[in-house]
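Appendix B, record 7
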Amino acid sequence: MSMLITPAYAQDASGGVGALLSGSGMGQFLPIVLIFVVFYFLMIRPQQQAQKTLKAQIAAVKRGDRVLTAGGIIATVQKVKDASGEIEVEIAPSVRVTVMRDTLTNVLSGTPAAANDTK
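C-alpha cells (predicted):
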C-alpha cells in the first residue's frame, strides 16, 4: 500500500510549513484571529476607555455639575456625600432629591443649567 503514495505527497501531508499556510492546520484560524484583533481595536478597546473616563468623571463630580441619571433626569449637583455614595441633586427649582452615585450615567458639564440657556 505504501508504494501508491509518493514521497512528495507524504511530506506535504506531514504538517510542514506549506501545510500550515495552505489551508490545513493553523492557517485556517488566521482569519478568525485577525477578525478578533480588528474587533478588539475598533470596538472593545475604545468602549473600555470610554467607560474608564466616565467612571473617573463620576468619581470627580462636585457641587454645581450637571449630571444625567439612569432615569433620564438632568439635574444639578447640590451636595456630595462621599462616605455613603449618595449625591443630592436639584431637578427643578427648590426640588432636591438624593440619588446614588452609581445611578449617574453622564456628567454633562460643570456649569448650572441656567448659565447655558442664554438663547
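Remarks on this record: The two ends are 91 Å apart (CA to CA). Residues 2-56 form one domain.
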